[in-house]
Amino acid sequence: MNPVLVLGAGPAGLSAASELAGLGAPTLLVEKETYLGGNPKRWHYSLLAPDLRPAEEILGPLIERVEHHPQIELHVGSQVSSAEIAGNGYRISLRSKEGVQTREVAAVVLATGFDHFDSRRKFEYGYGHFPDVVDFKELEGMIHDDRVLRPSDGKAPGRIAWVLCVGSRDIQIGNPWCCRMGCVVSIKQAVEIRQKHPEIQAYIYYMDIRTYGLWEDLYWKSMQDYGVKFIRGRIGAISMAEGGRRLIATGEDTILSRPTEVPFDMIVLASGMEPGTGTKEASDLFHVPVGPEGFLTPKLSDMNTIDSGLPGIFLAGAATGPKAIPDAITEGMGAALRAFQYARG
Amino acid sequence: MPIVEKSLVRVQRTEQLEIDGIDVSGDWNTFIEPRVRADLDLRIVDWVRAQPQGDTIDRCWQCGTCTAGCCMHTDYGLEEFNPRYFIYLAQIGYEEELQRYAQAIWRCVSCNKCVERCPKGVKVEEVVHTIGTYLEASGRAPETPADRFDRAYTDNLLDRGILDEAQLFRSYEKLEGRKTPGRELLRMGAALLLSGRLHTGPLAHRTKGWRRMRPVLQGLLEEDLRRRRASARTSRPADGSHP
User: I need a surface site. Which of A22, A251, B35, B84 has the fewest CB within 10 A?
Assistant: First the structure.
């Protein structure tokens, strides 16, 4: 049996490779970065919602298993540079620093994931210009290392604001979709900070809170147990005040029906999820159609997000749209099963 | 809890109010207004949507990004100017509340920051002006000193095709039922005379050919007003559905 190609080694890809190997299928795991774990690893995600378990505890064993499994052939720092149909499977070229090699694969799992929105594109918020305006993926790392300090002067912030929907639900940016994660991750970050440093005040500027399903519990707890404050209104702009010592968030408190300008020591932008560069490349290589948002389109998205409708190609994780880590891992399992059935013939 | 935020309190003056036989006329800080709103009227949003400048009104989801950056609000401190609130009131058809802002709505300076930032692509500036046009055309907005001044100003211009400041002042005073002390009048008149702007009475200028021009302009203005009033009255489709 030819190996099954798994493209991308984030939560979904790791899970797919691990399951395929468990089924006894030879697996080719290709990752363009030099490490396994995708965005969670890259940005050092701290605790995961909803049960606030460390990201390492979830992804660590998965990475461990994939790294050492005899059925898994690992290609990090590699990319698929071309693909064509060969029999029931595909013939692909694998390009890495060592050169190009041609391989035949029996089936393909595309787990190419997402990129965090580049907050510099929302220029009104001054990200990249004001050092104390940070992206929430950077804050993950700070919380992880327990060093929540202002980048400008290294002092502990007294009051932090989160701005939700940065680069999501925004026609001006061209991203009209909801990122699904911004609300719950921001609330989780506020809770984490308030747990460790109750002296820091946490304010969240929201338009709607979308802690969907069972995550609602965390939203309630954040208010009832951790005193996180919520202001309803989108921030229009961020500016500097007090000679650059503090930031001003200008917004409308739509409940008071009047604008507010509140000084903060640090402002965190909940940047959205965009289709990853790998996702665009995968669409070109394997001719998987993309929707208007640029994510891969499953054949019947009302039924499942795994079947692409193309022979031997299966989808998993945030390649088909914003997704939480457990969802990506679950989809990786499903895609592995589908790919295994297809490869066995 | 006492209301400490003064700007939120609208002082209401009642000249003659009797409740259960007791005279309660005077100034009241706040009345508890009835909750029942039987007068929600969707004609306004239907009309605004039907205008080419107002067709993005249904996109608004009340996030407040427009008001957050609004320069009338932040730079000029005009607290009653709140584009998000205007659009909201229009959307739900709360015309009675909206009429309070029939004047303020025209204070927009069209900087278009709101249009630039709106995450839903609402053409806020155009929509807000369209709402203002509706309020004006509805003829239900309470007349304010600014309205009366507008009237005096237009009449004055139409009269001779050129502004006569002294005449404008007199007619506006008459509309307001007010009288300026003679000494003050003299001071202002002298200032106008010295600055060479006293074109009144025998000193008045006259625009050439104004006798023929005036009826044309007057006709156009009346026609425009008639058209807008008629359109604001008949905006609602008979079945009440969205156009």
Answer: B35
- For tokens 């308030």, what's the residue? A194
Tell me which chain A residue has its CA closest to the CA of residue B117: A172
Q: Please indicate whether the domains covering A4-113+276-344 and A118-271 agree at the CATH topology level.
A: yes
Q: Does A169 touch chain B (CB under 8 A)?
A: yes
Determine which of A112-121, A149-158, A257-266 has the lowest per-residue pLDDT on average: A257-266
Name the residue among B74, B118, B121 with its Cβ closest to that of A259. B74
**CA B149 to each of CA A250, B9, B160, B172: distance values in angstroms, whole numbers, following the listed order:** 36, 27, 17, 6
Which residues, including other chains, have CB under 8 Å from residue A216's CB and lie 6 or more apart?
none
CB A2 within 8 A of CB A343: yes
Task: Write the residue in B64, B113, B121 that is nearest to A233 by C-beta.
Answer: B64
Report the residue of A122, A166, A231, A254 to disrupt the B interface, i.e. the one with the largest count of B CBs within 10 Å. A254
Please count the other Cβ atoms lying within 10 Å of the Cβ belonging to residue A159.
Answer: 17
For chain B, the maximum distance between any two Cα atoms, rounded to a whole number of angstroms, is 67
Q: Which ranges of chain B have pLDDT less than 70?
A: 1-10, 29-34, 38, 74-75, 202-203, 233-243
> Does B137 share its domain with B194?
no
Residues B154 and B122 in one domain: no
What is d(CA B168, CA B158) in angstroms, rounded to the nearest whole number?
Answer: 12
Q: Do A171 and B68 touch (CB under 8 A)?
A: no
Q: Which residues of B touch A261 (CB under 8 A)?
A: 74
User: Of B142, B158, B191, at which residue does a domain stop?
Assistant: B142
Residue A184 has pLDDT above 90, yes or no: yes
Residue B175 structural domain = 145-217
B61 contacts A207? CB cut-off 8 A: yes
Per-residue tokens: A1: 């049996």
In chain B, which residues have their Cβ closer than 8 Å to the Cβ of A252? 64-68, 82, 84
Question: Is the domain of B135 the same as that of B170?
Answer: no
List chain A domain ranges: 4-113+276-344, 118-271
Min distance A237 CA to chain B CA atoms (Å): 7
Nearest chain B residue (CA) to A124? B117
pLDDT of residue A235: 95
State whether residue B61 sits within 8 Å of chain A by CB: yes
Q: What is the ipTM of this complex?
A: 0.82
Distance, in Å, from the CA atom of B8 to the CA atom of A253, rounded to the nearest integer, reads 14
What is the Rg, in whole angstroms, of the alpha carbon atoms belonging to chain B? 22
**What is the pLDDT at residue A167?**
95
**pTM tops 0.90, yes or no:** no
* Residues B120 and B171 placed together within one structural domain of the fold: no
Residues 211-230 of B with CB under 8 A from A: none
The answer as to CATH 3.50.50.60 being correct for domain A4-113+276-344 is yes
Please check whether residue B63 touches A, CB under 8 A. Answer: yes
**CATH number belonging to the domain at A118-271, selected among 3.40.30.10, 3.90.550.10, 3.50.50.60, 1.20.200.10:** 3.50.50.60
Cβ contact A94:A81 at 8 Å: yes
